[in-house]
Amino acid sequence: MADLKTLRKDTVAARQARYGATSVLYTIVVLAVLVLANWLANRYNKPFDTTSNKRYTLSQETQKIVQGLKQDATITYIDKASGFDQAKGMLDRYKNLSPKIHIQYIDYQKQPTLARSYGLRFPGTAYVEIGQRREEAKAVTEEGITGAFVKDLKGVRKVCIVSGSGEDGLDSTETGGLSQFKTLVERDNYQAGAVTLLDKTSVPDDCKVLAVAGPKSDYTPNEVAAIKTFVESGGRVLFLLDPPLDFGREHIAQNKGLDDLLASWGVTPQDDLVLEENPMGQLFGFGPEIPLVNNYGSQPIVNDLKNSFTGFPVARSLQIKNTGKTTVDQLFSTSDRAIATTKLNTNEVNPADPSNKKGPFILGAAGTYKTGKPNEQGRFVVIGNSGFINNGMLHFQANRDLALNAINWLSSDEDLISIRPKEAEDRRLNVNQRQMNVFAYIDLIAIPLFIIVAGVAVFLKRRAS
After folding, report:
1. In whole numbers, what is the pLDDT of the chain averaged over residues?
2. What is the model's pTM?
């Protein structure tokens, strides 16, 4: 009996020693793995973004700009020392993109003179320096910091929106206004302002891009001549032309002067209204008057939009061809389910009307004009709709990207053409009271009870052995 007890004690002791040795070994292995992982993380700083919309990954636009730098750039963040951490995450993303990016932190309380030399107005401000240029970021966000990079590299460019012929107001905050378009253009570091050509013989010299956005009245021969001379001398114009509707209170002029000018360059706006019964449009609550597009060409403006939809409320189709002076590319078109009616004097449309034209239809085109001067070709973009940039539609899917990409291409800022920084995604979980009660029972009762029962079972099993 004594020998049996001694043997049992020796067995228990041996088992405890084995468990102890195993525990020590596992502890050493875990510590070694942690030390190695920490060393690798410090030596090779590679972040991983697991969010569904890659919220913590810098956009293609930013990556193109930063990775294309020809010289070193310094981002300086000025705040009190305790505030540095709130900017570090964002600034480190830029640093990880290129070895040419350097980050500098200045404590304005300890170095007030240095902070004042930057023109500091508010703590928590970032500045981007490239060569001799220094620009203040509007905010410590991707749009703000990348915008400062653009200003350093490109300077300020002006987008002039023609007014005086019934175009939607640039500062209007109504659904049909263009105030949000103006804000987006200015965030891309352009200056946006209205200009009238009625009393001018030429487009103002400071206009990098001219935009004709949904005129409701005919342009005068003087205005058409000014636009013609502008493009054929190397200027850049965005034409957004709605179908010439004429019923009720809706009256949009034919604008034959503009139509004839565009036709001479190889883009002929059609007198029709494009309609499409798209299942995706029905999901968004859109009728057939808002065709949705996801059929894009390979032109730089739309090359990054392949997997996105754009929507065009009340659009007309285009016919395109090259001419002796111009080269024209298709930007996007409808599906073959689309139809187009030429009956523009009524708001009643019969999809089964045999006179309707069958799709697909081209809705957007981009062209270049050979001026005969090297590196001074004219550029123009024509879209058979202006409503896609108004306040009510601008933020639908890829409408914003299409509008800004067109401006970028026209101003020869091809390196800025990409999908813009992502907005925060609403990931809230909406539950009712019954579901809340289920969660409470599971979290407060079921899970703790399961742990207690499992613990008692393990204890009893060990005691029995």
Report:
1. 88
2. 0.71
